[in-house]
Amino acid sequence: MIMELSIDYSDIVKVYRMEQTYVMVKPDGVQRGLIGEIISRIERRGLKIISLRMNVIEEATAKEHYSEHETKPFFSSLVKFIISGPSVSMVVAGKDVIKIMRTISGATNPVDATPGTIRGDFSLDIGRNVIHASDSSDAAAREIAIHFKDTEIWKYSKVDEVCIYE
């Protein structure tokens, strides 16, 4: 006897709290060919990419994004690096996605990053640490608004969400 599983996938989003975060593959990650590896890790974890763009970030946008570091000595070099080449910006969604993305990314300083994390596997220097992930819900909302219009963020359900979330 074959049992048929009948699930209305369109309602799955109602089952759990869907949080959003901003993630960037920085220019060093793009230059090193790590875009696919990073996206693959995000998706294999069960998170959902709901917006994605590759571009060279404009200087004003980079300054706004990193405005909390404006008074720090590394601010100018950080902005210069971020606008030095293409990067990949994403909005990633899922339950507890901010905490999960920070864990997947690893410690900001790659020297402290655990092997198996993105920075632990692909970075050696804090100034070239391959990935940015928002560190709080306030930062995520601010960074998403800086990099994406509401009309560029897609709401959709994936069939595997019933296997990922209770």
Describe the overall structure.
- This protein has 166 residues and is α+β, with helices and mostly antiparallel strands.
- It has a single domain (15-153), classed as Alpha-Beta Plaits (2-Layer Sandwich), CATH 3.30.70.
- Helix content is 38%, strand content 16%.
- The protein has nine helices and four strands, in the order H-E-H-H-E-H-H-E-H-H-E-H-H.
- Strands 2-3-1-4 form a four-stranded antiparallel β-sheet.
- The longest helix is centred in the last third of the chain and has 11 residues, at 137-147.
- The model is unreliable at 12-16 (pLDDT under 50).
Mean pLDDT: 92
Output the number of helix runs: 9
Total domain modules: 1
CATH topology, what is it called? Alpha-Beta Plaits
Low-confidence segments, given as residue ranges, are 12-16
* Structural class designation: alpha+beta
Order of helices and strands: HEHHEHHEHHEHH
Strand content: 15-25%
Apparent shape? globular
Based on CA atoms alone, the radius of gyration comes out at 17 Å
| Percent helix | 25-40%
CATH superfamily, by name, is Nucleoside diphosphate kinase-like domain
> What composes the largest sheet?
4 strands, antiparallel
CATH class: Alpha Beta
Cα(first) to Cα(last) distance is: 26 Å
Question: What order do the strands of the largest sheet run in, or round the barrel if closed?
Answer: 2-3-1-4
Question: How would you summarize the topology of this molecule?
Answer:
Blueprint: H1 12-15, E1 19-25, H2 27-31, H3 35-44, E2 48-55, H4 59-65, H5 75-82, E3 87-94, H6 97-105, H7 118-122, E4 131-133, H8 137-147, H9 161-164
Antiparallel strand pairs: 1-3, 1-4, 2-3
